[in-house]
Amino acid sequence: MLVNAERLTTTLRALARFGLNEDGGVDRASFSSADRQAxxxxxxxxxxxxxxxxVDGIGNMIVSSxxxxxxxxxRAPVWSGSHIDAxxxxxxxxxxxxxxxxxxxxxxxxxxxxxxxxxxRAVVYADEEGNYAHLLGSSALARGxxxxxxxxxxxxxxxxxxxxxxAAGGDLLAAARVRLPQGSIHASVELHIxxxxxxxxxGLDVANVTGIVAIGGxxxxxxxxxxxxxTTPMDGRQDAVLAMADFVTRLPGxxxxxxxxxxxxxxxxxxxxxxxxxxxxxxxxxxDYRDPSTEKAAALGDLIASAAQDAAHRRGLQVESHxxxxxxxxxxxxxxxxxxxxxxxxxxYSSRDLPSGAGHDSQxxxxxxxxxxxxxxxxxxxxxxxxxxxxxxxxxRGANVLLGTLMRxxxxxxx
Length: 415
Ligand SMILES: [Zn+2]
What we know:
The chain is α/β, with parallel strands linked by helices.
């Protein structure tokens, strides 16, 4: 059985209109007006297909087929979902692919009146990209939030989650009640773009994701002394920028020391007081480091912390650090990985195993149920940018693999 290629690629283009900017990028932060419009459109699209849309207390959308669920609606369902919110000036595929492919699969199962042993549902997770909190909707399902935690969330633009959410018709008390008990989902599978260059470079159709990397990070602040740029000799300075620069240039070596799967990034640096004629008294750098192994990521975190101390002390500076708790790696489940592999083989596609270097809602779902992910190639490995592109043929192959996987997980006949 195959998805309807024309319908899927058309809906992908239709969804991309919401929040589309002049650069061809998408501005569709969760709970923004573009996001709300996209949700309204998506709801009518689902209803036109005879599907039903429910929204939980925090804004996760759950799409089901009443027709397919006749007699089995109370059994633990197979979920397939992703997100439709985007990073600022983001791409058209990161998230929407997984959502629209899941809806397309559900539509096809319904059209063919496939007999299932358990429901298949398509899910849209709220605020995956973390306008307010990274993986907000799926974190609520996995662990829940208190009203206080939700009230403390502030968006990228400085708005309070509580204000935006209630203005959009949400209810904080209902949001705080969202949480799924163990065993309520049978399995979960997410189709997503790779967001990296490996599949394209190797000429492969899809990846069967092995797990999601452990992610650590934090903010390091080098505390020196402000001095006159002209009158302070070079050897009498406590220059915060030099200490920070020394630290930053050591990081690639530390990642290599831990292993060739480790990565470390310093995407934000700030300097005080910020005058061209003033030796900087303070420099701050935000570090993000990842590895498929939680142990290796932890080891890299330790090396990073001692390198910061060393770089500071060599120049007579102090260093202050604010360390985020390490998010452990989420290995994906063998049962789901085997269903994906069987579907890949049945379609005659080429594939490889690949870890995910990016975080996904699936890492939360993996704490609730056996979970897997399918990647399709990203042109030039580009993502989180208007340049993000996945060719239609790859979109369709990924959705076909998803369909076969869902049929296997929901125990539909897969001849
Ligand atoms: Zn995504």
